[in-house]
Amino acid sequence: MRIELAEIYREIYVAASRDAIELSLEYGYLPYVVQRYIDILGYEGAIKLLEAFEKPVKPVVRTNTVLIDSLRLKHRLEKLGFKLENIPWSSESFWVISQPKSPTIGSTHEYLKGYYYVHRDATSLIPVHLLLHEYNGDVLDACAAPGGKATFMAQLLHEVNGVVFANDLVLYRLKVLISHFMRMKLSNVVVTWCDARKLRDKLSRKFQRILADVPCSGEGRISIDPGRKIRTSIFDLAVMVKREIEILNSLIDLLDDKGIIAYVTCSIAPEENEYVVNKILSHRNNLEVVEPPLKLLSYGKGLTEYRSLRFNPELEKCIRIWPHIHGLFGYTICLLRKKH
Questions:
Q1: Cα angle vertex 259, ends 254, 261, to 5°?
Q2: Which of 11, 135, 129, 5 is nearest to 62 (CA)?
Q3: What is the pLDDT of residue 3?
Q4: Where are the domains positioned within the chain?
Q5: What does the pLDDT look like over 120-164, one tens digit per residue?
Q6: DSSP letter string over 55-68?
Q7: SS3 call for 166
Q8: What DSSP string describes 89-147?
Q9: Which one of the listed residues 143, 216, 266, 318 is annotated catalytic?
Q10: pLDDT tens digits for range 15-50
Q11: Is 266 designated active site?
Q12: CA nearest 93: which of 164, 152, 144?
């Protein structure tokens, strides 16, 4: 499969309207980004989304159930002054509602002992629950650092001897990933250092489950990183999209028959999500989009059209998490199954 950068750029380029320019000046965004929100959500919906990005999100404590029971951990942290709230769809996890001046949530003795992992937001729990639902085998996490999803999968598969193959390309991030595995005493892991696009040439096996949480614009995380409002030009976006297509296309070659790959981004840009998956589906006839096996919350549906682009109708089965609707990071998840 060959995809040209110029083709991507032509298909995703758009000139911003006057409304988009005015809102971009008011909220501090690149105009093309705001134009996207207007095109998807309408003018009023775009304002709701922009306002939601100005609000903080609640961090999450995820219990390492290999070392401690979640209720016991909650009791210990509450004794230190933290106020925690159960996440109803993730039994081992808690929202941090408030915390003392000291210690911070990442410097307690419990944290250093590996009793929990701190997520910036609850969205990263969702693809793990979906991908590992009623599954007990090995998993490939192709872009694993810094380790939130990889450590979660390792603890869930610990009792059934499932192994997480955790890969990343960026070496300093890989060091952080390894430190989390060591801190949390998770030994059912194999760590590799490789460009995800080249993994198919390095691994001599296939997988029933693959997580492809690909490097992206991170546009869904603006609430904790406002610099992302202006960081990605439309040309930069086209470069990212090309890499995302190449990663997903390559990883599918590592998927067993009837295996499932979760394509994930912390972005709400259709260019990085439905557009990418649609390109893959148009070049491969051995894939199908599958419904999420769990209804963890009221998901937004995937887009089947965007501006002048028309996507495979099956992409409606993809999941969208919207900051102004769900109170979480912007997130998109698409589950693909390999057919015979």
A1: 70
A2: 129
A3: 82
A4: 16-53, 60-119, 122-338
A5: 999 999 999 999 999 999 999 999 999 999 999 999 999 999 999
A6: S----EEEE-TTTS
A7: strand
A8: T-TTEEEEEE--SSS-TTSSHHHHTTSEEEESSGGGHHHHHHHTTT--S-EEETT-TT-
A9: 266
A10: 999 999 999 999 999 999 999 999 999 999 999 999
A11: yes
A12: 152
What is the helix (H) or strand (E) element at residue 261, kind and residue range? strand 255-265
pLDDT reading at 187 higher than 90: yes
- Note the pLDDT of residue 340: 72
Distance CA 95, CA 321 (A): 17
CA-based torsion, 44, 49, 53, 57: positive or negative: positive
Residue 115 CA to residue 123 CA, distance in Å, equals 20
Element (H, E) at 213: strand 207-213
pLDDT, tens digit, 9 for 90 and up, residues 77-114: 999 999 999 999 999 999 999 999 999 999 999 999 99
The CA distance from 299 to 209, in Å, is: 22
Specify the CATH superfamily of domain 122-338.
Answer: Vaccinia Virus protein VP39 (3.40.50.150)
> Of 92, 226, 88, nearest to 153 (Cα)?
92
Virtual CA dihedral for 77, 79, 85, 86, nearest 10 degrees?
A: 60
Q: What is the pLDDT of residues 270-317, one digit of tens each?
A: 999 999 999 999 999 999 999 999 999 999 999 999 999 999 999 999
**For the chain, how many residues are written?**
340
Residues 141/188, Cβ–Cβ less than 8 Å: no
Question: Which CATH architecture group holds 60-119?
Answer: 2-Layer Sandwich (3.30)
